[in-house]
Amino acid sequence: MLTSACVKQPVTTTEKTSIGPFSNFTARLIVIEPKRRWQVMLQWHADSPDRGDVRLTHAATGTVIELRWLDDQMQLRSTQSRMWEPIEAVQLGSQGIVIPPQQLASILLGQMPGHFINKQEGLWESRASGNPIRLQWTPSLHKLTMTDIKHGRRATMLIQP
């Protein structure tokens, strides 16, 4: 979904940023890994970091994946399995998610989790998961790029507010 590795630290303290606030939007998500690339359409709904849902649609295959969360409880379903199944943060890493949805919701609402260090305007890094994760925000394009530096994976979200 969003690259690989999973930030384990929960959202505790936050810093205001120039990102968003984006609570309901569609976006094109482009994921580049060392051995494969793909893109999906994303529909995001999260009025707070504690509750939300996201739907990913891969047009070429018709695959749809939906993720929803309430606090730390997360559930996933797809076109292969229409039943909601619980999913843990560790499993999200294997699905390609760099940042848990609760933290991504906080970021998209303009509140950067405290473990991300501002390196320069529009650029943050974190090592909370043990692997360096970089976020880069390009406000003129509504573009958020999330990079898992260790694994060479990058996910770019082009937000259409």
Could you characterize the architecture of this molecule?
With 161 residues, the protein is mainly beta. It has a single domain (14-160), classed as Lipoprotein localisation LolA/LolB/LppX (outer membrane lipoprotein receptor (LolB), chain A). It has helices spanning 89-94, 101-108; strands at 14-16, 24-32, 37-48, 51-58, 63-70, 73-78, 85-87, 111-113, 117-120, 123-126, 133-138, 143-148, 153-160. The strands form two sheets. Strands 7-6-5-4-3-2-13-12-11-10-9 form an eleven-stranded antiparallel sheet. Strands 1-8 form a two-stranded antiparallel sheet. It starts with 13 loop residues before the first strand and ends with a strand.
Furnish the topology, listing elements before pairings.
Elements: E1 14-16, E2 24-32, E3 37-48, E4 51-58, E5 63-70, E6 73-78, E7 85-87, H1 89-94, H2 101-108, E8 111-113, E9 117-120, E10 123-126, E11 133-138, E12 143-148, E13 153-160
Antiparallel strand pairs: 1-8, 2-3, 2-13, 3-4, 4-5, 5-6, 6-7, 9-10, 10-11, 11-12, 12-13
